[in-house]
Write a structure and sequence with these properties.
The complex is a heterodimer. By secondary structure, chain A is an alpha+beta fold. Chain A is built from 6 helices and 5 strands, in the order E-E-H-E-E-H-E-H-H-H-H. Chain A has a 5-stranded mixed β-sheet with strand order 2-1-5-3-4, with helices on both faces. In chain A, strand 1 and strand 2 form a beta hairpin. In chain A, helix 3 crosses helix 6. Chain B is built from 17 helices and 28 strands. In chain B, the strands form 7 sheets. In chain B, strands 10-11-8-18-15-16-17 form a 7-stranded mixed β-sheet. Chain B has a 5-stranded mixed β-sheet with strand order 13-21-20-19-14. In chain B, strands 22, 23, 24, 27 and 28 form a 5-stranded mixed β-sheet that branches. Helices cover 26% and strands 23% of the residues of chain B. Chain B is of the alpha+beta class. The chains are: A alpha+beta, B alpha+beta.
C-alpha cells in the first residue's frame, strides 16, 4: 500500500445538508464519489462525458453533470442529489408533477431530468417552451419528452 | 401502497425445492393456474395462487413474470389480474418471481421473456385466469366460513358480500383459508367491455420510486463485501485476447485482481467501479483481432449491394408472376434503399452482479428474459438449476438489448474466479457502444411495374442483408430462411403485408457480416416500413396520384390497416391545405399483431434542416389494457425511431464499431421532439403488441413529408450522412 497512488486522500463533501468524508483521489468524478463512497445511488451513470445528464445534481443550486466534476472542485460547496430534493417530508413540486403526469418509463434518466428541471424552475418559474428547449438537454431513450414538457408546465403552475 | 416492491436482496422469498435439472428450462408451458402446494411469501402472507398474495391488511401482491423496462407491462399485467380478482386497486403492489422459483415450480408463471411486444398479449389469458381463480377461492373461503353457498356471495373491491344476509368480509381475512382450497379447474373471464380496472389509463405502479431515486436498478445493487469489475472485450468480433500486462496496474489503488473472461475479454476487479475502470484504462492489452479486422462499412455495403442484383434468395411472400409482369409493364419504377446498424444504448449501461460459490450461484440484474439469464448462469457456473437463481431488478431501458445474456455470462465468469465475493460487473458506455447487438444492416431494391392505365401490376422487393436469427437464434430459421426478416411483409399472420398487388415477390438475399445483430425495438419493421412506405409514396407521385388515394386502391382487402391510415389522415387534415410552410407525409404498417399508422407535419429550411412539428399516430392493438401507457409508448417509440433516422447509424472500421458514446452516437433531445397526438383505436377480437409496432411509421411519414417539401427523395439512413439534421 505504498506509493503516491495509494495514499489516503480524504475529501469533504456536503451532500443534501450532511457532511461526508470520503477516501477518494481528488480527480475522482463527483458522480462516483456520490454513488460508491457516499452510497446515494439515485444519481445515475449514463455516459461519463457529460452528454446525457443522467448524473445531474445541484452544486450551489446550479444543475451540473456530476460525471464531469472532480471531487476537488465540489469540496466546500452545497451538493444536492435527487435524494435531497424533497424537503420537510414533502416531495418537490417537480417530483409531484412527475407523479401527476406519470412521466417516467424506465425511469433511469429521470433523476437527472428532475434535477435539471428543478434548477430551471428556480431560475425561471414560468418557463416557455423555448426556455425548456434551451435548458433541458438530457437524453431519455424511452422518449418521455412529451410528458416531461407537460409536467414542467404543470409544476410551474402548481 | 400501490407500488412495485424491489425484490429482497439476501432474502429468499421462497424455499426452492429441487427441480428438474437442465430440462427445467426446456419444459413445455404448463398453464400457470392454481399450482402445487401453497407457498408463503417472504413476510409469511399466504399465496392464494401463484399470481396473487394477499396480506392480512388487504394488500394485494400481484406477481409479474415479465420484466419492466419502461414499457408499462408491470402495471398492465397487474391491471388484468386485478380486474378478474375484483380487488381494491389502491392496495395493489407487485413483485417479480425469480426464474429459479419458476423452475422449481414447473414453470408455473410461464414464459419470462419480455420482447417482441409480447409481454401482455401472450400472457393476458393465463394471468387473467390466475386473478379469476383467486377470486373464486376467496369467495369460497368466505362462504365456507359463513356456511352459505358460494353462489350467494359476490366480490368487489376486495370485499366479499353474502347478498341474502348482507354479511361482509375482506380478502385479507379469508386469504389464509382460501390458500388451502383446491383451485377451480375452469373459470370464466370477463368480457373486456365490462372492464373497470383494465382498459383504463391508470397511473403506473412504479412511478413514485422513480422520482425519488429510490428504485433499485441492477447498477444500484449493493451486497456485503461486494467488489466491482470493469471489462474490455476484443474490439473486433471474432478476435481474441492475446495478452495483458497485469504488473502495470497491480499497484493501482483499489485493484484486487485482473481476470481473463472467456477467450476474448479481460476484467479488472477493484474496490470501486471507478478504480476498476481507471486501472482497466491503464492496462496494456494485446488483441488478436482475428479474421474480421479488415471489414469496413464500405466492404459490407458492397457485399449487400451485390445481393440486390438477382441471385438466390429466400422468398417470404409471392403471388402472380412478377418477372413476366415487370417485363410486360408499360412503365417501371426502381429505387434502392438502405438502413444501417443501430445500437440500443440503454440509458443504464449493462451490468450484472454475481455471487458464486461451488454450491451456489446467484445473479442480480435487469434482464428482459429471466429464464435466458438463468440459462446463462447455469452454463457459466456449471452448476445445476437447483443451485442457481437470478434476481430480477428494474431495467434502465431494454429495447431488446437486455434479452441477450452476454453480460450475465461475463459476470458469472468473473465471480467464479473469486468464489464467495459478490462481483458487480458494469460496462462503460464505451463498452456498450462498441459491443452491442446491433439493429441489422440491410439494403433493398424496389422494382414496380404499372400498366398503361397507371395501375400498379407488379412489385418486387429484394432485401439484401443481415438476419438476426441466423446469429442469435439459428433454431428459428426455417430451411435456412429467417422468417422475421419479412416482418410486415408476410402474406398473413401477425406481421402481414398491407397491400394486395397482382404480381408480388418479396425475397431476401441473406448476407451476415461479423457484426453481431440483435433485436432492436421494432426489429425488422424499422427498415421494412421505410422501404415499403417510402416507395409507395414514390409510386403514387410517379403516376400523379394522391398518396392516400393510391394506397387505398391497394388496400381493399386490408381494412384494419386502412382504418388506422384513414384515422391519421383525417386527424392531420389530409386533403386540406396545410399551414404555411408545412408539408405532410403518411405511412402505415402492421407488426406485432397491431395495425399502426402515422401522419407527419414538417417544415424544411435550406433543404437540410427538418423541424418535425407534429405526428398523428394511430394504433389498433385489438385491446387496450392501459390507453395512457399506449399513448406514451407511441410518443416514446418515435424518439427512439427518429433518433435512429436522424442521428443513428453505427459504422464499421477495421472490423470494429466506430461510435463510442453519445457524442458520436447522438440521441434526440426535447427541443427536437414533435407534438405527438395518438389515436388508440382497439377494434377487439385479437391481441396486438404496443411497445414496438408504432416505432416504424414515424420515419417513413417524415421522409415522405420531406419529399413533399423539397421534391427530393431520401433513401438511406441516417440523415446525418447527408448533412440533414433537425432544425
Amino acid at each position: 500500500m505504498d506509493g503516491p497512488s495509494k495514499g489516503i486522500a480524504m475529501a469533504n463533501l456536503t451532500i443534501n445538508g450532511k457532511s461526508f468524508t470520503v477516501d477518494v483521489e481528488p480527480d475522482t468524478p463527483l458522480l462516483w464519489a456520490i454513488r460508491e463512497n457516499v452510497g446515494l445511488t439515485g444519481t445515475k451513470y449514463g455516459c461519463g462525458i457529460a452528454q446525457c445528464g443522467a448524473c445531474t445534481v445541484h452544486i450551489d443550486g446550479v444543475a451540473t453533470r456530476s460525471c464531469g466534476v472532480a471531487v476537488s472542485e465540489a469540496e466546500g460547496k452545497q451538493i444536492t442529489t435527487i435524494e435531497g430534493l424533497a424537503s420537510g417530508g414533502a416531495l418537490h413540486k417537480v417530483q409531484q408533477a412527475w407523479i401527476g403526469n406519470d412521466v417516467p418509463q424506465c425511469g433511469y434518466c429521470q433523476s437527472g431530468m428532475i434535477m435539471a428541471v428543478a434548477a430551471l424552475l428556480k431560475d425561471k418559474p414560468k418557463p416557455t417552451d423555448a426556455d425548456i428547449d434551451e435548458a433541458i438537454t438530457n437524453i431519455c431513450r424511452c422518449g418521455t419528452f412529451q410528458q416531461v414538457r407537460e409536467a414542467i408546465h404543470a409544476a410551474a403552475s402548481a | 401502497m400501490n407500488k412495485h416492491v424491489a425484490p429482497q436482496i439476501n432474502r429468499r422469498a421462497f424455499v426452492i425445492g429441487t427441480a428438474a435439472i437442465g430440462t427445467g428450462l426446456a419444459l413445455g408451458l404448463d398453464i400457470p393456474f392454481g399450482g402445487p402446494a401453497m407457498v408463503r411469501a417472504a413476510d409469511g402472507s399466504p399465496e392464494v395462487n401463484a399470481w396473487v398474495v394477499i396480506r392480512p391488511d388487504d394488500t394485494v401482491v400481484i406477481r409479474v413474470a415479465r420484466s419492466e423496462m419502461g414499457q408499462g407491462t408491470l402495471t398492465g399485467l397487474a391491471q388484468l389480474v386485478a380486474e378478474e380478482l375484483e380487488c381494491d386497486w389502491s392496495k395493489v403492489t407487485t413483485e417479480f418471481p425469480s426464474p429459479g422459483q419458476n423452475v422449481a415450480r414447473k414453470r408455473i408463471w410461464g414464459d419470462f421473456s419480455t420482447g417482441g411486444s409480447r409481454g401482455i398479449r401472450t400472457s393476458q389469458d393465463y394471468v387473467r385466469k390466475g386473478g379469476a381463480a383467486a377470486r373464486v377461492m376467496l369467495i369460497e373461503a368466505a362462504a365456507n366460513e359463513w356456511k352459505v353457498p358460494a353462489s350467494e356471495c359476490t366480490a368487489a373491491n376486495s370485499v366479499i358480500t353474502h347478498t341474502p344476509s348482507g354479511k361482509t368480509t375482506t380478502y385479507g381475512k379469508v386469504a389464509d383459508a382460501a390458500a388451502k382450497l383446491t383451485p377451480p379447474t375452469d373459470v370464466k373471464l370477463k368480457d373486456p367491455k365490462d372492464w373497470k380496472i383494465a382498459g383504463k389509463g391508470l397511473k403506473r405502479l412504479d412511478t413514485p420510486d422513480k422520482v425519488t431515486g429510490a428504485t433499485v436498478y441492477g447498477i444500484d445493487v449493493k451486497l456485503p463485501g461486494m467488489l466491482n469489475a470493469a471489462i474490455r472485450d476484443c474490439p473486433v468480433t471474432g478476435g481474441t485476447l492475446k495478452s495483458y500486462d497485469e504488473a502495470k496496474i497491480a499497484s493501482m489503488k483499489g485493484v484486487k485482481k485482473v481476470v481473463k473472461v472467456g477467450d476474448t475479454a479481460v476484467a479488472v476487479v477493484a474496490d470501486t467501479f471507478w478504480h476498476a475502470k481507471t486501472a482497466l484504462d491503464a492496462l496494456p492489452i494485446v488483441w488478436d483481432e482475428g479474421p474480421n479486422a479488415k471489414v469496413s462499412s464500405a466492404s459490407i455495403a458492397q457485399w449487400l449491394a451485390e445481393g440486390l442484383e438477382g441471385g438466390p434468395a429466400y422468398v417470404g411472400n409471392s403471388n402472380g408472376d412478377v418477372n413476366a409482369a415487370l417485363a410486360g409493364a408499360a412503365r417501371k419504377v426502381e429505387a434502392v434503399y438502405s438502413y444501417p446498424y443501430q445500437n440500443h444504448a440503454t440509458m443504464e449501461p449493462l451490468n450484472a452482479t454475481a455471487l458464486y460459490t461451488p454450491d451456489k450461484c446467484e445473479v442480480w440484474c435487469g434482464t428482459q428474459n429471466g429464464e435466458a439469464a438463468m440459462a446463462a448462469v447455469l452454463e457459466a457456473s456449471e452448476l445445476s438449476a437447483d443451485k442457481c437463481d437470478v434476481h430480477k431488478l428494474m431495467l434502465g431501458g431494454g429495447f431488446g438489448r437486455r434479452g441477450q445474456t452476454d453480460y450475465v455470462r461475463q459476470a458469472v465468469l468473473i465471480a467464479k474466479q473469486m468464489p464467495g465475493t459478490p462481483i458487480k460487473l458494469l460496462w462503460t458506455r464505451e463498452e456498450d457502444m462498441t459491443h452491442g447487438r446491433y439493429h441489422p444492416v440491410t439494403q433493398c431494391k424496389m422494382t414496380a411495374g404499372f400498366d398503361a392505365d397507371n395501375n400498379l401490376t407488379a412489385l418486387h422487393m429484394r432485401i439484401s442483408g443481415q438476419s438476426i436469427q441466423a446469429t442469435l437464434r439459428p433454431a428459428g430459421l426455417v430451411n435456412g430462411m429467417d422468417p422475421s426478416t419479412f416482418q410486415g411483409l408476410n402474406p398473413k399472420g401477425e406481421a402481414a403485408f398491407g397491400y394486395s398487388i397482382p404480381n408480388l415477390l418479396i425475397d431476401h438475399s441473406m448476407r451476415n457480416p461479423h457484426i453481431i445483430p440483435g433485436f432492436w425495438r421494432g426489429v425488422n419493421v424499422n427498415h421494412n416500413a421505410i422501404y415499403v412506405e417510402c416507395f409507395m409514396d414514390e409510386l403514387a407521385h410517379a403516376v400523379n396520384q394522391d398518396p392516400l388515394e393510391f394506397r387505398r386502391k391497394l388496400m381493399k382487402n386490408h381494412l384494419k390497416n386502412l382504418a388506422v391510415l384513414e384515422a391519421v389522415a383525417e386527424k392531420i387534415g389530409w386533403g386540406k391545405p396545410a399551414p404555411q410552410g408545412i408539408s405532410r407525409g403518411l405511412a402505415h404498417y402492421m407488426g406485432f399483431n397491431s395495425y399502426v399508422a402515422a401522419a407527419a407535419e414538417i417544415s424544411v429550411t435550406d433543404g437540410s434542416k427538418i423541424k418535425v412539428h407534429r405526428i398523428v399516430a394511430a394504433t389498433d392493438p385489438g385491446y387496450a389494457v392501459n390507453p395512457a401507457q399506449i399513448d406514451r409508448q407511441i410518443s416514446g417509440s418515435f424518439v427512439y425511431g427518429l433518433t435512429g433516422l436522424f442521428y443513428g447509424g453505427c459504422t464499421v472500421k477495421d472490423g470494429a464499431i466506430e461510435q463510442t458514446n453519445f457524442d458520436t452516437y447522438n440521441s434526440m433531445r426535447i427541443n427536437e421532439m414533435p407534438k405527438v397526438e395518438s389515436i388508440v383505436m382497439p377494434s377487439g377480437g385479437f391481441w396486438g403488441g404496443v411497445g414496438e409496432p408504432t416505432i416504424c411509421v414515424a420515419g417513413p411519414a417524415v421522409l415522405n413529408a420531406y419529399f413533399a417539401a423539397t421534391g427530393k427523395r431520401i433513401r438511406s439512413v441516417p440523415l446525418r450522412d447527408q448533412n440533414i439534421t433537425f432544425a
